[in-house]
Amino acid sequence: MTVDVWMQHPTVRFLKHDMLSSLRRWTGGAMPEKDEEVPIEATIASMDAAGVGFGLLSAWRGPNGLDLVSNDEVADWVSRYPTRFAGLTTVDLDTPMVAVRELRRRVREQGFVGLRVVPWLWGLPPTDRRYYPLFAECVELGVPFCTQVGHTGPMRRSETGRPIPYIDEVALDFPELVIICGHVGYPWTEEMVAVARKHPNVYIDTSAYTTKRLPEELVRFMRTGTGAKKVLFGTNYPMIGHTHALVGLDELGLSGETVQDYLHGNAERVFKLGPRDCGI
Predict the structure, then answer these.
(1) 35 exposure class (CB count in 10 Å sphere: 0-12, 13-18, 19+)
(2) Rounded-to-integer distance, Cα 120 and Cα 135, Å
(3) Within 13 Å, how many C-alpha atoms sit on residue 278's CB side?
(4) What mean pLDDT comes out for the span 74-84?
(5) For range 223-251, the mean pLDDT
(6) Fewer CB atoms inside 10 A, N or C side of the chain?
(7) Residues 153-179: what's their mean pLDDT?
(8) How far apart, in whole angstroms, are the C-alpha atoms of residue 77 and residue 165?
(9) How confident is the model at residue 26 (pLDDT cuts 50, 70, 90)?
């Protein structure tokens, strides 16, 4: 059963945000319109069309009260379809103790399976001091820190997405922290692969890239024994639909075992998704 580790169900607030303007050009109108209220069942239909059985829904929060997809909304969707979704919480970096308590509550009381913070949305790399209490809490809770690496599709500065120095330094400071780096790190994919190879707890997810567009250096890494256990499937839906994201998988030259690890095995292990979580 395929697991999508980076997706979001789009609210109208999310769709209206100017960060999507450049992405709309790239997707050629495939994304929902800005004023459309999208039912959660539409997201499930996209998953079903591609045989994606389970997805991790991200909340989105930025500075100055920017709340594009709230933790409460994610919790509601997960409660309605618990065998199809789990939640990734987000927090307000400007209020560190409130953020730590929010992370703790969402994981302990509502079963969220990780924390996601998008650095370019905050203009703060993950080495900023405001992240560090959250990293410590993730370790205590036993959940991953999920983030974005590589350049930004939206018209924001890309520097915060450098794997080196930022992910490398965080992994050195918190060797027990599981770090999942979305969007493959392009154009610094070789850096991202090097960091994932170096640190046992650093992983890569393929969100925001279709299978056919995965960088060759990442595909080579996936063909190795280490890389086969380090790369997770993600779409960044609704920016990329599930069926579109998977086209070309058979052309990567991966072993059958590696394909299964990529599509679900690594996600189940890293996020500790049991059969009950995934509706099996």
Answers:
(1) exposed
(2) 18
(3) 20
(4) 98
(5) 97
(6) C
(7) 97
(8) 36
(9) low
pTM score over 0.90: yes
Q: Which of these CATH numbers, 3.40.50.300, 3.40.120.10, 3.20.20.140, 2.20.28.120, describes 2-270?
A: 3.20.20.140
Quote the pLDDT of residue 158.
Answer: 96
Render 50-77 in DSSP notation, one character per residue: HTEEEEEEEPEE-STT-EEE-HHHHHHH
Interior angle at CA 7, CA 232 and CA 238, nearest 5: 125
The torsion angle over the Cα atoms of residues 149, 159, 124 and 70, rounded to 10 degrees, is -40
Q: Residue length, the chain?
A: 280
For residue 28, give Cα distances in angstroms to 33, 44, 153, 154. 12, 22, 14, 15
pLDDT digits (tens, 9 = 90+) for 204-226: 999 999 999 999 999 999 999 99
CB 47 within 8 A of CB 239: no
Which two structure tokens, joined as six digits, stand for 215? 């960088």
Nearest C-alpha neighbor of 202 from the set 191, 212, 213, 188:
191
Q: Token pair of 34, please?
A: 């800005």
CB hemisphere CA count around 18 (13 angstroms): 2
Q: What mean pLDDT value characterizes the chain? A: 94
How far apart are the C-alpha atoms of 99 and 175, rounded to whole Å? 22
**C-alpha–C-alpha distance, residues 186 and 188, integer Å:** 5
User: In this structure, are strands 67-69 and 60-61 parallel, antiparallel, or unpaired?
Assistant: antiparallel
The tokens 């103790």 sit on which residue? 97
Confidence tier at 157 by pLDDT (50, 70, 90): very high
Closest to 69 (Cα-Cα) out of 8, 2, 140: 8
C-alpha radius of gyration, the chain, whole number:
17
Tokens of 276: 């009950």
pLDDT reported for residue 36: 75
